[in-house]
Each structure stands twice: as structure tokens, then as C-alpha cells.
Amino acid sequence: FVIDPKTMNLYAMSERQGEKLFQMNENNQVSLAYVRPAENYFRETLGVQIVGKAELLSGKDPGFAEGLEIYFPTILYMLPEMPKDPASLQAFKDNITRTKIMTKITPERIVLRDNSLKAKNLRTFQVWKQ
């Protein structure tokens, strides 16, 4: 996932036939979680949970282009060799637009647990609600 810092929306790319896409098409309420592995969980805790609504966007949907602009730089880093000229870059974007599905997550609640915040005199449990 890539986050848009202006809107807090998350974007991800998928193949068109993934099981998770069928599930999100039926129920757009989603929950994502990440917990960093730590040797001492009670001292080095870092985890985030995001609850929100998923929207599946094909290349024909208006929001796809906006999400692609946010997500695209991360795709380039995954390539063995980046396209360099503008025509190659555009052809690559066009292929993504034709073949991929984008998932846009609009967060409704984000919960962060980060024990390192204690050293900054901040609460280790932070909650953001829309």
C-alpha cells in the first residue's frame, strides 16, 4: 500500500482475479493490520490497524488515474530496469491501466501503538478518526 499524505487514503495494485477482490466487492468494510516483529514485544511494540472502506477501481474509473500518480513511483522501484524515455513510461502506465485493479482504502479509524513515543512524552496508543 501507498498512502496519500493529503487525504490519508491508501492505494494498492492487484491482479484482476484475486480472491480478496471478490470479497471486497461483496463487503467494502476492510481492516488492515501491521505489527513489527520485536524481541521484546512489551518494550518495542509498533503496530497499526486501519479500518475503513475499500473501493475497487478499474482503469476506466475516474479515481484510477489519481491513485496511479500516487502509486506509480513505487512500481518503478520494483522494476529491474526503469523505462527512461517519456513514451516508454506512458506505455507502461497504459499497460497498468488496462490490466490491473486498484484498491483505494478510505480510512475511518487508524490506531497506532508505538512504545517509542514514550521517550517523547507522547502517548504510546494513538487513535485517529475521520
Written overview of the protein:
This protein is α+β, with helices and mostly antiparallel strands. 30% of the residues lie in helices and 35% in strands. The chain has helices at 19-26, 62-78, 86-99, and strands at 2-3, 10-14, 29-35, 46-57, 101-114, 125-129. Strands 1, 2, 3, 4, 5 and 6 form a six-stranded antiparallel sheet that branches. Strand 1 and strand 2 form a beta hairpin.
Mean pLDDT: 90
The biggest sheet, with number of strands, parallel, antiparallel or mixed sense and barrel status, is:
6 strands, antiparallel
| Amino-to-carboxy terminus distance | 19 Å
Oligomer: single chain
Order of helices and strands: EEHEEHHEE
Shape: globular
Provide a count of the helices: 3
Low-pLDDT runs: none
Strand proportion: 25-35%
- Class computed from helices, strands and strand pairing: alpha+beta
What radius of gyration results from the CA coordinates?
Answer: 18 Å
**How many strands in all?**
6
**Percent range for helical residues?**
25-40%
Annotation keywords:
alpha+beta; 30% helix; six-stranded antiparallel β-sheet; 130 residues; 35% strand; single chain; 6 strands
Topology of helices and strands:
Layout: E1 2-3, E2 10-14, H1 19-26, E3 29-35, E4 46-57, H2 62-78, H3 86-99, E5 101-114, E6 125-129
Antiparallel strand pairs: 1-2, 2-5, 3-4, 4-5, 5-6
